[in-house]
Specification:
Layout lengths: L22 H21 L6 H8 L3 H8 L2 H8 L1 H13 L10 H26 L6 H4 L1 H16 L8 H10 L3 H10 L4 H16 L1
Length: 207
């Protein structure tokens, strides 16, 4: 997955344009990702080491690190199919998440869909966010979300009165994986309440 990319709202930055791999490299990658996915499901992502993944995939630990760099990059690779489907939904999917609905309704639907994604894959998303400070904000996935939110804000009547860059970051901070997981499991806030709160926030910002 490429990093440090500034995507347009119509790009899917999680889809790599890297040259075609050798067949053995492709097989290694598939074995590693299959093994990681299985172990994460069986033990939980926090209880699976890179050593365990390398052993299960029958590859050397050096191969694993050369291929993915670190654990967070491996988790992001495991999530790639899920992330691509999510981005397809808000770029080209049916309304209100996709085109065809008013921008405020699309913004609400985007937040609700992201909350659902965090609800189902929060442990993996948290693991993918680990790394040096600021890494996730420079990642192409965050760039895609931010570009989409900026576009929707620009389409709203209130857009001319907003600092779109600052407002988009502020809105996305309310949907950060760490915060949402804490709200759900640390504070026991129901998912429906988080969605209602997101709708209130989106309507207030775009009014």
């Amino acid at each position: 997955m490429p990093t440090d990319v500034t995507p347009t709202p119509f790009e899917l930055p999680v889809v790599s344009n890297a040259p075609r791999e050798r067949a053995d490299a492709t097989r290694n990658r598939e074995r590693i990702l299959d093994s990681a996915q299985r172990l994460f499901a069986e033990r939980g992502v926090d209880c699976v080491s890179m050593d365990a993944i390398a052993e299960a995939a029958a590859v050397g630990k050096g191969t694993l690190f050369r291929r993915f760099g670190d654990r967070s990059a491996l988790v992001r690779a495991v999530l790639e199919e899920t992330e691509t489907a999510f981005q397809e939904g808000f770029i080209r999917g049916p309304a209100p998440l996709g085109p065809g609905a008013p921008p405020t309704e699309r913004l609400i639907a985007f937040g609700n869909a992201l909350l659902d994604l965090i609800e189902s894959r929060g442990d993996l998303l948290l693991a993918a966010d680990t790394g040096a400070p600021g890494t996730r904000f420079r990642h192409a996935v965050y760039g895609a979300y931010r570009a989409h939110v900026v576009t929707l804000l620009r389409e709203c009547d209130a857009g001319a009165d907003l600092d779109l860059d600052v407002t988009a970051d502020a809105l996305l901070s309310a949907l950060s994986v760490e915060l949402v997981v804490h709200q759900r499991h640390g504070r026991g806030i129901a998912l429906a309440r988080l969605k209602a709160g997101w709708e209130q926030l989106a309507r207030a910002v775009t009014a």
